[in-house]
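Lecture 7 notes: from sequence to structure.

We start with a single chain of 165 residues. Read the sequence below before looking at the structure.
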Amino acid sequence: MNRILKPVTYVLAAAYFLVDAVFAAIAKPISDWIGRHLVLRRLRAWIRSLRPYPSLALLSVPVIVLEPVKPVAAYLAATGQIVSSVVTLTVGELLKLVLIERLFSLTRDKLMKIPAFAQAYARYLQVKAWLEATEAWRAMRSLSRTIRNYVAQMRASGPAPFRQS
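Now the structure, written as tokens:
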């Protein structure tokens, strides 16, 4: 049983983190846009005033609150509620990652003063670089660019004229 469970565990863990990687690529531009357009000076000043460990505690809040979205979405999918599952996963993951991205951008310097966090972040960057160097990742990025270019061309050309046969 252990022989079967170990590979299944690795596959599930990889899929779990792949979901975060995919959503992170979407969340970063949203987070940057929020940072440029939503001005909450007092809140931003308060977050930046935190010391390293309170900054880490604040960064963990979106993870603790929103990480259960994945199993909830899996449950919804397993019970046949596919649309609810996809909406729950998409909204929950984007919200979590946007909040984490914004908080991290405001507290990064403080967080890097925590040795264990700095080491974990360095390891995360190594794994991310490895993932982005894989052929599968490059293929998905290329496909994504092709789809975006196609959609942009369709928008630029406007709606197709109505043709009668």
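The longest helix spans residues 2-37. Keep this in mind for problem set 3.
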